[in-house]
Amino acid sequence: MASLQDLRRRISSVRNTRKITKAMELVAGARLRRAQTRIEEMRPYADRMQELMAGTARAASSIRNLALLQRRDEVRTVAIVVVTGDRGLAGPFNGQVLRRAFELERETRAEGADVRWLVSGRKGASTLRFRRYELTGQWAGFADRPSYQDAQAIGHRLAELYEAKEVDRVLLVYNRFESALVQRVTTTELLPIGEDVLAGEEPAEEPKGPSADFIYEPEPEEILQRLLPVYLETEIYRALLESAAAFLASQMTAMRNASKNAGDLIDRLTLSLNRARQAEITQEILEVVAGADALSG
């Protein structure tokens, strides 16, 4: 049985740990609210970008020569882009996205294609290096607060690989934020950009009144060629923001659970401490009574 001093030391240690986890929970909660605001501000921009691309594509005479739209007849190499966190202490956040990425790898190799790895976040990079995978691209340092420049760097590298025909398909795996308690692993095909993106949503009925004819300068094909990389960067930026919010939500939940478990452990240790103290007092009383009996005898 542990001594009173050991129990008091353990209780003090667990209390200090609970202070840390509680503080981390509060910090993650405050940052999560800001991350949600950034996602809400991003969505209208992404929607307008898709509408602009769809309108320009409808005006273009041909879009077959645009590299980011060309779908390869034979897929020989698939690039898997994994978005993870730079830090741990976030429950299953990093593990679940990596498990999905490894599932995609097995499916891709079963179809006879090679896999090239690109990763955002230190945790994902360290896991892939531990498994002795070669990384074609690696970015870190912005997992919980990404900027558009970070998305541009990733998008430029992916477009470069696809246009050079080093990869024939690009998949993005990340945690999508749904609520503070729910984060879902999502897989998105970034390249080639699908025709459904350019199709857009057709209006339910034709607008009344005179229609407008737009004059494009330069030609719609050239405008679309400039818009496609921007659309790719926008989709990556959206995924980075979703992943950042999901990380903070997962960390907040993990720290809340850790604080609760620490409280339960403190209660159990306190109960053990009280029992040990009671046993010690009882033992001292017995020793006093025994000594008194010996003296009286």
Per-chain topology:
Layout: H1 4-59, E1 77-83, H2 93-110, E2 114-120, H3 122-130, E3 135-139, H4 148-163, E4 169-177, E5 183-191, H5 195-199, H6 220-296
Parallel strand pairs: 1-2, 1-4, 2-3
Antiparallel strand pairs: 4-5
Helix pairs in contact: 1-6, 4-6
Keywords:
alpha/beta, 61% helix, single chain, Pyruvate Kinase, Chain: A, domain 1, 2 domains, five-stranded mixed sheet, 297 residues
Question: Would you mind describing this structure in some detail?
Answer:
The chain has about 300 residues and is α/β, with parallel strands linked by helices. The chain folds into two domains: about 5-25 and about 260-285, Orthogonal Bundle (Helix Hairpins), CATH 1.10.287; about 25-195 and about 220-250, 3-Layer(aba) Sandwich (Pyruvate Kinase, Chain: A, domain 1), CATH 3.40.1380. The protein is about 60% helix and about 10% strand. A five-stranded mixed beta sheet has the order 3-2-1-4-5, with helices on both faces. Strand 4 (about 170-175) and strand 5 (about 185-190) form a beta hairpin. Helix 1 (about 5-60) runs antiparallel to helix 6 and helix 4 (about 150-165) packs across helix 6. It is elongated and about 115 Å long.
